[in-house]
Structure formats: structure tokens, C-alpha cells
Amino acid sequence: MVNPMYLTPEEEAMYDGQEGPVVEKSMEILVALGDIYGARKMVDISSAQISGVSYKTIGDAGLEYLEEFAATGVKVKVPSTLNPAGIDLNQWQELGFPKDFAQKQRRIIDAYQKMGISTTCTCTPYLVGNVPTLGSHIAWSESSAVCYANSVLGARTNREGGPGALAAAICGKTAEYGYHLDRERKANFLFEVETYLKGVDYGALGYFVGKIVGNGVPYFRLRNSPSVNDLKSLGAALASSGAVALYHVEKVTPEYEEALNEKEELETINVDRKEIDESSHTLSNTNKEPDLICLGCPHASLEEIKSITEIIDGHKLNIPLWVCTSISVKAAADHMGYTKIIEKAGGKVVCDTCMVVAPMEELGFQVIGVDSAKAANYVPTMCGLDVVYDDLEKLIKRK
Ligand code: F3S
To answer: Lowest CB count within 10 Å: 17, 45, 80, 196, which one?
Structure first.
């Protein structure tokens, strides 16, 4: 086969199988992707983030594939982290997860661990030490994390699939196309947001805009200055209703100045309170009351957990509450006494998993209350359950 991509001698050696069959197969995947998308060469990556972890999404076929890979002794070449799994690896029994599911999930995690991947199991790897620098090339495959890394951190990644990100981690390389290139990082829509935003408004805005731009690059002019947690929610929503991998916020995100092409007038769309409220409304698919409130999509930061404790401290919750996060952030929440406050009110800090990739449909819940537009978008399709989208405080205080 004629290979139009330039490969260095080191890359050629991997491609020719000199580092073993798994590296060879991984390089073949990267070259095939590069050929499809017109890449001229490979770039070194500084980290990988790998999805395809929950047994619910990859099943027995995925489990066997990973165990075969791991059995060869292959190791990743760059720091690599895992997306959420289908269970809380420590608390699965008390949360009621099925034993058979948990055992298979454990085998998946063990296979990844054998390959040298950090099994922190989170969609916010940037909160647990996998923090790429501005301009660095990475291969990440969790869509909300991709959006955060490209937009807020200014790193460079495409929306990798799980196998592509694993192949990149194994080779320490990825093909240079898409968001690795300056020209692909320009904005192609301008959104003038005429209303002040707070709380779930950011998710509603992302959901609204993602549907308009598809895989485009939106540029926002906002009236107020969003926090990093607001940007996390906005990106997750953009990446779920559309296929957005990068957005810019004027005077906030690091590449906003280069994002506009001076010679080109962008299509401008005004967004007002009406669009935000309608979008919020659409995200609930039922009038029924939730029988579980699930927060932390993307996985909660310590600040977000702190905000939850400020609302519930001293109260007894009427509805069970899960706050999903990573094991590292939970350790900090334990240290700060936040976990105790949440448990005293009747909630749980749940690690390693979330309301979408866990088998919620097998745990007896019917309606989940969420403050995340991404979760509201995916729970009905991924779990077959109803969903209520509302502000954190309103959800928690529901009777
Ligand atoms: Fe993370 Fe699960 Fe939401 S993977 S972004 S918490 S759907």
C-alpha cells in the first residue's frame, strides 16, 4: 500500500512491527486515520485520555480485546488516564450494582492498568493531574474533556474514539490533522449572548448552540465572566448536542484573539433569555418527580462539591443524591469534611462512574434529576430513564 504520510524512521519501525504486534497494529490505526483525514505527518503527544471503559458500553467483545492487548505486555508511552467506568470500584456493593457486571468491569480496569494507564476513571482528567499545556498535542477521547482541553487549556486534540486514543497512547503519537492545525482552530459562528447567565444556563446555552453548529467552532461574546466550572458545563453540552471540540469565549479562553479571521465576517446569532429558557425546558422530558438526583456531569470539582455542601448542610434530603466525581477529588472532599456532610444529609459521593455509563436502568430508578445538559441529553437514550433538568439548589430542595 502506498503510504502518503511522512513517517520518521522511529515511526516506520513501529509501523513495520519492530516493537511488536500491538504497537504495529496501533500504528496502523493511526496511519489509517491520518490517511482518511489527509494528515501529512505524525506529532508527538504529551498525554492520552481513553474512553471505552464501562462494561455497559464495550461489553464482552471490548473486554476480550483489552485483555488480549494487555497480555502481550505492551505499555503506553505517555501519561494516560481513563474515562469513567460502569461502577464505583470501591462502593459498588453498597450502591447496588450487579455482581457479574462489577466483576467484568474490574477485569477491564485491570487490563488498562497492566498497560500502564492511570485508572483514576474520570471525565475530568484535568482536575486530577492530566493537565496539558497551551499548544501541546494530546489524544483525548472523552468529548467533554476534549472540549475543555482545546478551549480552556488551549491544548490540541481531535475527538478521538476509544481505540484511536489507546493506539495514540501506545505509540506516543497521533496523526496531525483537524484541531492539531492552526487553520482548523478558527471560529466559524459568532454567538452574541444578550442575557446574563448563571447555573444551568451554561448547559442550556451549550445545548442550544451545539445543535446549530454541529462540528463547527463557536465564538461567544458573553455579558458575564464564566467560572471554570461554568466552562466545563458549557463545553460538555456543546459536545453532546453537537460534535463541538473547540469553542472560544471573548476575553476568557486563551486563543480567542487568533480565533477570528479578520478578512471574514462570521455568521452572527443572537441568543437571549427566551432561547436559554426554552432550551432548559426541552432538556426535561417528564413532569414526574425524580427518584434520584445525580450531580457531577462532567465529574464534580472540589469547588462544586463544596457548593453542594453549603446547600444541604444540616438538612435531610427527600430524594437520594449521588455526587459523581473522581477518586482523587473524593479524597480531597473527605479531607475537607464535605463527604461527611453529604452522607449525613442522606447522599453519597460516588466515584469512578456516572449516571450515563453506569447501568442505572438495572438499579430500579425511573426519573433522574440532573443539573447537566449533557446528562439530560444522554440519560434517556443511554439508560432509558426519564430526566428532569434543573438548578442544583432547586433539585436538592425538591419535596
Ligand atoms: Fe462524564 Fe459521564 Fe457526564 S462520562 S461528562 S459524567 S456523561
So the answer is: 196
